[in-house]
Amino acid sequence: IAYFKLFLGFCFVLGGLAVASNLFPYYGGVGLVLALFAGCRWLLSLGVSFVALVLFMVYLGGMLVGFVYSVSLAADPF
Fold this sequence. Notes:
This is NADH-ubiquinone oxidoreductase chain 6. GO terms for molecular function: NADH dehydrogenase (ubiquinone) activity. The chain has one domain. The longest helix is centred in the C-terminal third of the chain and has 27 residues, at 49-75. Helix 1 (2-21) runs antiparallel to helix 2 (25-46) and helix 2 packs antiparallel against helix 3 (49-75). It starts with a helix and ends with a helix. Helix content is 88%, strand content 0%. It is mainly α. The radius of gyration is 14 Å and the shape is elongated. The chain has three helices and no strands. It has helices at 2-21, 25-46, 49-75.
């Protein structure tokens, strides 16, 4: 169980690094989804389900804003 929690923490950090280091917003979004699932699962394994739900809602809003912004920039040629 402790190795699983350590693995989830590692995936959370790795997802955050993927968001910060990618030049393309689509791959950054994949890193954000990885960080979302790993972070929520990690918090659920610690027993704080409300904090996991709040993290899910914040990441969902961030992904929505980031995806709409990147798609609008990609659609506009000028």
